[in-house]
Automatic annotation (TrEMBL):
PROSITE patterns listed in its UniProt record: VOC (PS51819)
Gene3D superfamilies associated with the record: 2,3-Dihydroxybiphenyl 1,2-Dioxygenase, domain 1
Taxonomic lineage of the native organism: Bacteria, Pseudomonadati, Planctomycetota, Planctomycetia, Planctomycetales
Name this protein carries in UniProt: Glyoxalase-like domain protein
Domain VOC: 8-137
Organism whose genome encodes this protein: Thalassoglobus neptunius
InterPro entries recorded: Glyas_Bleomycin-R_OHBP_Dase, Glyas_Fos-R_dOase_dom, VOC_core
UniProt xrefs under SUPFAM superfamilies: Glyoxalase/Bleomycin resistance protein/Dihydroxybiphenyl dioxygenase
One Pfam family per UniProt: Glyoxalase
């Protein structure tokens, strides 16, 4: 099922080991507005989508090869989540993250260059080891395009 003009916001709850460091990372580093919160969780507005960081102090943050899948010759962390942005938003975010010293798993680059589905992408971890991907397309109609 596809929607022509608007998407419904998604909701994603994910574990973090420390709410204070997550509040700083998602709020100050990524620049996401904070919504409701309690002593064990925080809502963030991820470009109109609701993500909720739930504190789990004993979180296992394995980052070994068992968490990777090969895509375009790069080791992509799985699981991961993120948002498809407009290209100018993606470029601004990449610059902001670089300026804040975020260590990328996969540096910002153009994936599948010159092919169907060409996209800008970048991967990095939050302080709890959750992998995030932000991507953009020059032509958003390529989001689900096949060869």
């Amino acid at each position: 099922m596809t929607q022509e003009n608007s998407l419904s916001p998604f909701h994603l709850a994910f574990p973090v080991r420390n709410l204070a460091e997550s509040r700083k990372f998602y709020g100050e580093v990524l620049g996401l507005p904070e919504g409701r919160s309690d002593t064990t969780w925080i809502d963030f507005d991820l470009y109109g989508h609701q993500i909720v960081a739930h504190e789990r102090p004993h979180l296992n943050t394995s980052t070994g090869d068992e968490r990777n899948s090969q895509v375009d010759g790069k080791a992509v962390p799985v699981p991961h989540f993120g948002v498809v942005l407009e290209m100018d938003q993606w470029k601004e975010l990449a610059e902001r993250l670089s300026g804040k010293g975020v260590e990328f798993i996969i540096e910002p680059y153009i994936r599948f260059e010159g092919q169907v589905g060409e996209q800008a992408t970048m991967f990095f971890l939050d302080p709890s080891g959750n992998a995030l991907e932000f991507k953009a397309f020059q032509d958003r109609s390529m989001l689900f395009a096949k060869d």
